[in-house]
Design a protein that fits this description.
Blueprint: H1 15-28, E1 43-48, H2 54-65, E2 68-70, H3 72-82, H4 86-90, H5 97-106, H6 114-132, E3 135-138, H7 142-145, E4 151-157, H8 160-171, H9 175-197, E5 209-212, H10 218-233
Parallel strand pairs: 1-3, 1-4, 2-3, 4-5
Helix pairs in contact: 1-3, 1-6, 2-10, 3-6, 8-9
């Protein structure tokens, strides 16, 4: 395998510019429009247990709010910042330091500080997204890298048996294999947040809302997040639809429970 060079160190791109580029790309999609331009809208971060369907839920919430959506887009943006191929960053995305160092040693990069570089650039990117506003971020410790006063921090959970059964049905694995992979995914995400942010990803005090997705339908889970957004920030983008009485924080604004 040819040696891959890690060239970002001395001339990183401007993170704010990368965020602006991605937001413009999102806005140019024919089915998207950024929520009420000119108004600063706080962001939503979604942390999730493995197999709790956080990606699909995050996309739906972004669509309903009219916000830009950041999942794999984070991988592309960090890769641009680090001037490496997205596949390279994707291979280490949300993995703990040990796995990252092991991978890069296998690629003959010979860098012991790769994990720190990745974590630094990720935190810068997430912080920039938070300052820009009107975004939904899934995973990557977004709830730790953004200003909690301007972030609705959501955690998705579900009983292990529910997540294992869903994984088995969706991917056709055995029960034992599904159990192994779900537990592995939980462990890697937990290790990643602990190493990158020195925090326990399962600590409920780090979140504004914890939702058991085994209890609520996808539509109801969407609505819980929109209602929590309204309750925390007092307003919600008009394109979220329907109305709420005009007085106070629960006023004539879109009522997500009716959707």
């Amino acid at each position: 395998m040819a040696e891959i060079r890690w060239t970002h160190r001395h001339h990183p791109r401007n993170v704010e510019f990368i965020v602006e580029q991605q937001v413009r790309r999102w806005q140019l999609r024919p089915d998207k429009a950024l929520a009420e331009g000119g108004h600063f809208w706080p962001i939503v971060t979604i942390s999730r247990e493995f197999g709790s369907l956080g990606l699909a839920l995050g996309q739906r919430v972004a669509d309903r709010l009219g916000f830009s959506f950041w999942d794999h887009e984070i991988v592309s943006a960090v890769a641009e910042q680090l001037r490496v191929e997205p596949d390279m960053v994707g291979a280490i995305d949300e993995h703990p330091v040990g796995a990252m160092v092991q991978l890069f040693n296998a690629l003959h990069l010979g860098r012991e500080d790769i994990a720190a570089d990745y974590h630094d650039q990720l935190r810068l990117l997430l912080s920039s997204i938070g300052r820009h506003g009107a975004a939904v971020i899934v995973g990557r410790g977004g709830h730790m890298a953004t200003d909690p006063t301007h972030t609705l921090r959501v955690r998705l959970v579900a009983p292990l048996v529910h997540r294992v059964r869903d994984y088995q049905e969706r991917f056709g694995t055995s029960v034992d294999e599904a159990y192994r992979l779900v537990r592995l995914g939980d462990r890697e995400r937990s290790d990643f947040v602990r190493q990158a942010y020195h925090a326990d990803v399962a600590d409920p005090t780090l979140y504004d809302v914890v939702i058991n997705v085994a209890t609520f339908s996808p539509e109801r889970a969407d609505s819980l997040i929109l209602m929590a957004y309204l309750a925390k920030f007092g307003e919600i983008p008009a394109q979220s639809h329907d109305t709420i009485p005009q007085e106070g924080p629960y006023s004539t604004r879109p009522n997500p429970l009716h959707m």
